[in-house]
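Example record

Each entry pairs one chain with its bound ligand, BIS(adenosine)-5'-pentaphosphate.
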Amino acid sequence: MNVVLLGPPGAGKGTQAKVLEEKFGLLHVSTGDILRSAVKNGTEIGKKAKSYMTRGELVPDLIVIDLVKERISKDDGKKGFLLDGFPRTERQAEELDKALGEMKRSVDKVLYFKTSPSVSVKRLSGRRVCKVCGANFHLVNMPPKRQGICDYCDGALIQRNDDTEATINNRLRVYESETGPLIGYYKKEGTLEEVNGDLDVKELFQNIRKFFSEKK
Ligand code: AP5
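Structure tokens for the complex follow.
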């Protein structure tokens, strides 16, 4: 099953994708994670992407489309994947459809996490991530057991540099103008399912699990 997780920054796409990946055995592909890793490793793609990401703008379509095509064509994506943060423009959606068509596959379901802007802002400003393993926490909603320390690897917890107030506001604006039209795009394709992204982590999972079948 090939699933797109669609929703604004802070909707909880990454958090749910981790649970869904574990429970249903689907490959989690986060373009944000891939790009952050490229920036950290100083690759050519990372160098090109860095300034866009810091400003909360979208990285150019061609860069991201190639990254995703390459990732989903590998063997570990054959059983199905969860695309988190992609597509984000109509061009990306069209290119995804084209690439999947060539692989005799398609997007089976698009889960749209409809989320209030005020909820997004609270989640992003309180988010802390592990500098070492990338695990996600929230100061109030998902606090670590020890303040400032990752539960999984003892790494230091830091704030993402695009989780500042000004950049969060820009990311939400960019989402509305560039990614918002995809709701109509996928409605037309008949694959869109809307879920309430304002729910807490467990309730939200209960609402989306019905769209998946247990891993064998
Ligand atoms: P990306 O990393 O994709 O950022 P995003 O879309 O802004 O998404 P987030 O990771 O901020 O939010 P999320 O919905 O995953 O929420 P999360 O689960 O972490 O992209 C970053 C940048 O990369 C972009 O700005 C762009 O520059 C570039 N980029 C990436 N993809 C691109 C593309 N396709 N095209 C062009 N450029 C691209 O949760 C947030 C917080 O809330 C956490 O602290 C969590 O603990 C908490 N939380 C989660 N769920 C809940 C819940 N249900 N209740 C309470 N708290 C919750």
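The longest strand covers residues 109-114.
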